[in-house]
Design goal:
This protein has helices at 3-18, 48-56, 75-86, 100-109, 112-132, 149-152, 155-165, 168-173, 180-191, 197-212, 275-278, 283-289, 291-297, 362-372, 378-387, 426-434; strands at 41-42, 220-225, 230-235, 238-248, 258-267, 271-272, 299-303, 309-313, 324-327, 336-337, 351-353, 357-359, 391-404, 408-410, 416-418, 438-439. The chain is of the alpha+beta class and 460 residues long. The longest helix has 21 residues, at 112-132.
Length: 460
């Protein structure tokens, strides 16, 4: 390993650290118990029958943080709620979804019971859509992020707080994503003429995608937008470093959307070759029968008593994972890693891998994460990197890593623009926005978890 390159990477890592204001604090999303999977149902039609279905037709699941019961509303509070509903299109939502005509009629008639039921229902639906997103899970393709916001802010608690403080609009405002890119999309929507339906639909879809994530991503995190082919190291929503990426090819090797935790950095990694390559491509027999070739490639093979062959590529300049990988355990086997085929980062279309995400300047990224996570000092990181030996550096301060999918957003240069829908994931979201609101939505995806059988040898 070239020591000059290592020193340069460590200097860049220190530069990253020096640019942070105050101690670098990392947070990981608190573990959440998997909620019950509810079947998606179309929202009940407006009118009194809506309340019968909302409150009596289904068994109440007390553990669901979205559960609510009708509460007492003053006329003034209901009027304020009605004002929020009529202006909710500014958030990319549809006012008619939240019973504005019915609530207005109840207020006109001064029907206290109808006001309580209608206002409670409309408020709860607004909470759910602003907090969790309007798009049903069935329309979020390969979206495996568990949004913790419903557990942190249960619907009934939010409603009770709003009525106690009397700040209906402010309570709902506090549910919106805090990331500045959401605000940029909101401003763009306000500037886009009503007749430009296609662009408005694209903006609305990507505003909703922000609501699928945690409202606050934390003070320090990694976030990559797959269609942009970029990874950001972000502190207090400020980009500190960016890295070009190579992501999964369309189809079964497409990169899924995840929110995971980086728990360690592996320097000089080994690569355990998947059996689809060991057996399917005959690599195992070739390694065993050609020891000199295998040694040049860094492969070591063992054959068990039952004939099973395992092949591991040792650390070195030709290792398929390059000089590092970030440990972020997940059932999809997705992680960030280096590559010896760095020419791939020069391509415009970088959907080229089997699912995992390759990053440029990977050594700089690895050292930065190790130092920020208090797993190693600069000198220790350089020493570990130059050793040529497999070394896993656990970090004391873990870092969230978000793998997202936005087709309209702020790029790394600060410009709001469109990105190619490389996996054709927009249409299902558009369809959900054009359809009636769905209630009692599932909180977790029922899609197949495809464990990546990555072949990091893929090159152009």
């Amino acid at each position: 390993m070239n020591r000059t390159r290592l020193l340069l990477a460590s200097s860049l890592a220190l530069g990253t650290l020096a640019s942070l204001a105050g101690p670098a604090a990392a947070q990981t999303l608190s573990a959440q118990a998997e909620p019950k999977k509810d079947a998606d149902k179309v929202a009940a039609p407006s009118g009194s029958s809506a309340f019968e279905r909302a409150f009596t037709s289904e068994e109440v699941v007390q553990a669901d943080p979205r559960h609510f019961e009708a509460m007492d509303w003053t006329n003034a509070q209901a009027e304020e709620l009605l004002g929020v509903i009529r202006a909710i299109d500014a958030e990319g939502l549809v006012p008619a979804d939240y019973l504005p005509e019915e609530l207005a009629a109840a207020l006109q008639a001064n029907d206290e019971q109808q006001i309580d039921e209608l206002a409670s229902t409309a408020f709860a639906w607004l909470v759910e859509d602003l907090r969790d997103g309007r798009t049903p899970m069935a329309n979020r393709r390969q979206w495996f992020v568990l949004d913790p916001d419903a557990d942190r802010n249960p619907t009934a608690t939010v409603m009770a707080n709003a009525l106690e403080t009397g700040d209906i609009a402010g309570t709902l405002e506090a549910l919106k994503p805090t990331h500045p890119d959401y605000a940029a999309l909101r401003d763009k929507l306000a500037q886009t003429p009503a007749g430009d339906t296609e662009e408005r639909r694209l903006i609305r879809a990507n505003m909703d995608r922000w609501r699928w994530l945690a409202r606050d991503l934390g003070p320090q995190y990694l976030i990559t937008n797959v269609p942009e082919y970029q990874l950001r190291l972000t502190v207090n929503n400020r980009i500190i470093r960016t890295y070009r990426t190579v992501v999964g090819k369309p189809g079964r090797t497409a990169t899924p959307q995840l929110a995971e935790t980086v728990s360690g950095v592996v320097f000089n990694p080994t690569w355990t070759v998947p059996q689809s390559i060991v057996r399917g491509e005959g690599l195992g027999e070739r390694v065993l029968n050609n020891p000199s070739w295998a040694a040049r490639q860094g492969y070591r093979a063992t054959r068990g008593a039952n004939g099973y062959i395992s092949v591991v590529q040792q650390p070195g300049p030709g290792n398929a994972l390059g000089v590092m990988k970030l440990d972020m355990p997940n059932p999809h086997a997705i992680f960030f890693h280096d590559t010896p085929s760095r020419n791939m980062f020069n391509q415009d279309d970088r959907a080229l891998s089997h699912g995992c995400i390759r990053t440029e300047r990977a050594l700089e990224l690895a050292m930065t994460v190790a130092i920020l996570g208090q797993g190693a000092t600069r000198d220790e990181a350089v020493e570990i990197s130059t050793s040529g030996e497999y070394t896993r550096v656990p970090v004391k301060k873990t870092m969230p890593a978000y793998i997202t999918y936005f087709t309209y957003g702020v790029d790394i240069d600060g410009n709001l623009r469109q990105f190619d829908d490389i996996y054709d994931r927009d249409e299902p979201v558009f369809a959900s926005l054009d359809a009636p609101r769905v209630r009692d939505r599932a909180r977790v995806s029922s899609e197949e978890v495809i464990e990546v059988v990555d072949d990091p040898r893929d090159t152009l």
